[in-house]
Amino acid sequence: MARLDPHSYADSDQPRPRQLRLSLAVDFERRQLDGEAALVLAGPAAGPFDLDSRGLDVRSVLTSDGTPVPFELGPEEPVLGQRLRLLLPAGTREVRLRYRTSPEAPALQWLDPQQTAGGRHPFLFSQCQAIHARSLVPIPDTPRVRFSYEAEVVVPEALAAVMSAGPAGDRAGPRTGTRSFRFRMPQPIPPYLLALAVGQLESRDLGPRSRVWAEPQTVEAAAWEFADIEKVIARAEQLFGPYDWERYDMLVLPPSFPYGGMENPRMTFLTPTLLAGDRSLVDVVVHELAHSWTGNLVTNADMEHFWLNEGFTVWAERRLLEALHGEEEAVLAWAIGQNALEESMERFGNDSPLTCLRTRLQGVDPDEAFSSVPYEKGSRFVALLERAAGRVRFDGFMREYMARFRFTSITTEEFLRFLEERLPGVAEAVGVGPWLYEPGLPENAPVFRSARLDALVALASRFAGGEHPTAVQIRGWNPAETLVYLQNLPRELDPADCAWLDAALALTGRGNYEILVEWLTIAAGSDYEPAFPRTREVLVRVGRMKYLRPLYTALGRHPRTRALAREVLAEAAPRYHPLSRRVAASVIEKYTDTPAAP
Ligand SMILES: [Zn+2]
Fold it and tell me: DSSP string covering 157-212, please?
C-alpha cells in the first residue's frame, strides 16, 4: 500500500477508474453542483477505494446493480481535503456517487451578473489545477490517474455550458426553464484537466477545427484577436507531431479569471486581458496550445514535477514564436521571461527549495509554491539541452519523447532515463544535478541576446541620466519592445519623468495589459498620482494574479499608495477568485508593518 502523490489519498494498490460519467445540475442560487458521478473501474475490484474530496456532501454510493457501498469521510486536512474511503463489495466494476459540491468549492467561481460583461446573467467557471478537481467531483485527484469522461450538465435555459470535451448535443429540459448539454471526452485526461463553464455564451468559428466562445459582448473582439489560430496549430504540428485532440476551441472568460490561460483540452480557458485589439498578446494562446503536447499529452506525475509541464511548454511556446515571427521576437520573449524569473527568485530567495525544478511538496499547498520558476528556469534547462544536443537532434528527441509518453504521466527521473537512453551524455554535459535538484539559476544558464534587445536595455539604462527615447524610436517599437524598455527602467521615477513617459508612450490608455500593468507598477512605485484612477480600475476589474502581485507590491512602497492598496483590496476582494484574493492579501499582509521606502 503506497500513496502515489503527496497531494492525493490515491493508493497504488487500489483500483483505478478508467472512465467518469458525470450528471450535474448547476444551481446558481445555492452555488452548488448537484448530481451523480459514476466511476467505471479498470477491472472488477473489492475492498478499500480511496478518493479525494473537499467540501463534498456525499449522499449515497451504489454499485451499478444498486448495491449500497459503505463509505466514510476522513477528517479535513488543510492541504489535501478529506479522504473519502469506499469499501467495495467483491466484483465491483462501477460505483455511482450522489453528491453536492460546497458553495465554497475552490474549483468553482460563481459570478453575479454584474461581474460579467453582459451584466444580465450569472456565470460559473472551474479551475481544477493544481488540486481542486476534488472539490468538483469525488475522484483520485492525481495526474497519475487518467480517465475519459462523459457528462450531462443541466443549466438555466438562457445559458450554455462548455467543458474540456467535445460537445455531444443539447436539448430543452429536463425541467421547464432548463437546458441540458452533453459532452464526450474520448482521450484519457488527468483530473486537473476537467473543466466546466456556464454563462451566456456565443461562439464564432475560426477555422476547420477551432471556435472561440465568449459572452456576446466580447465574442467579436475575441474572434478577431485569435483569427490566425489555424496557422499556429499547423506550425505546431510540424514541430511537435500531430495534434491529438481533434478540436482546439477557446473560451474567453470574465475578467476575474485568475490566470492568463488554462490549457483545458479541447477548450482552452483565457483571460479577456488578452484582447489587446492588436493581436499582440497571442503568445499566451501559443503557450496553451503548446500544452496540447507538453502537459496534456505528456503530463507531470504530480506537482513535484510541474516543471515537466511548464518548462517544456514555455520552451515549445518560444520555439513556435520563433518559427512564426523570427528569432528576434523569440529573444524578446526570453527577455520578458527572464524578468519574471528574477522576480520569483527574489520573492522566494535564491536558496529557497521552491526554486529547484524538482520540488518536495509534502505538506505544501501547490498554489503557495506557484511561481515563474518551473516555467522560466524549466524552459532554460530545456533550451540548454537543445543547445547541447544540437537543434536537429533535439527536435527528433522531442518527437520521440512525445510519441513514447503520450497519454501518460511521468516523473523527472523517468524523463532523465529517457534522455540518457536517446541522447547519451547530454545530461552530464549540461550538469543536470544543479538544474533539477538545487535552488537558484545555474551559471551555465543559456543567454538569449540580439542587437535589438541590447540596444533597448542600453537605452533604458540611460533614462535615469536624462536620455529619453526619440519619437522616431518609440514609433518603431512593437509591443514586446515597449514592454522590454519599460521593464528595464528604474522602479521609482520622479513625477516629471512619469509624466513624460505617460505622454510619449500613451501608457495609461493602453489596451495591452502587459504594457499597461508594467507602467502602472512603475507609477505606483513612484507615487505618481495621475495614474491612480486607472490602477484602481484595473485592480477592481481584473483578477489575473500575474497583474495583482506586482501592482499591490508596488503600491506598498509609499504610505499613501499603501493606504490606497488597502482601500482598493477591500472593494475588489469580493469580486476576486479565491486564488487571487489570497495573492493580494498575502502581498498586503507582508508590507503592513514595514516602514515606508525612503
Ligand atoms: Zn502553462
Answer: TT-EEEESSEEEEEEE-SSTTEEEEEEEEEEEE-GGG--EEEES-EEEEEETTEEE
- Judge if pTM exceeds 0.90: yes
Q: Which H, E and C letters describe 460-504, residue by residue?
A: HHCCCCCCCCCHHHHHCCCHHHHHHHHHCCCCCCCHHHHHHHHHH
What is the set of active-site residues?
288, 375
Strand ranges (E), 367-438:
408-410
Residue 199 alpha carbon to ligand 1 centre in Å: 25
Q: How far is the CA of 561 from the centre of ligand 1 (A)?
A: 32
User: Distance from the CA of 313 to the center of ligand 1, in angstroms?
Assistant: 6
User: Which three three-digit cell numbers place residue 159?
Assistant: 445559458
Instruction: Measure 233 CA to ligand 1 centroid, in angstroms.
Output: 16
* Series of mean pLDDT values for 10-residue runs along the chain (598 residues): 91 96 98 98 97 98 97 97 98 98 97 93 98 98 98 98 98 96 98 98 98 98 97 96 96 95 98 95 94 97 98 98 96 97 95 97 95 98 98 97 96 98 98 98 97 98 96 97 98 96 97 97 97 97 96 94 95 93 93 54
